[in-house]
Amino acid sequence: MTVLLDWMEQTFHLVRTHRVKVERKDYLRLTVLVIPPTLLFTLFGLYYWVKWIVPYTGL
To answer: How far apart are CA 31 and CA 36, in angstroms?
Structure first.
């Protein structure tokens, strides 16, 4: 999650250097919209991957 926030901060800096008006609330809104679905997708993928790999390890 910190990688995404770092990326957003770097993007904010880049946009600001080119004098494009984007407010932090827009980035916050994007963060709220992007992080929860990404987290859920990643957790479901991890769950099914572990469910698939564990029978082959004998755990």
So the answer is: 9
**What residue spans of 1-59 are helical by DSSP H?**
2-17, 24-57
Whole-angstrom Cα distance, residue 1 to residue 35? 8
* pTM greater than 0.85: no
Give the number of other Cβ atoms within 10 Å of residue 30's Cβ: 14
Alpha carbons 48 and 32: distance in angstroms, whole number: 25
Residues 9-58 have pLDDT tens digits of: 777 777 778 777 778 888 788 888 988 999 999 999 999 999 998 887 77
In this structure, are residues 12 and 27 in contact, taking their beta carbons and an 8 Å threshold? yes
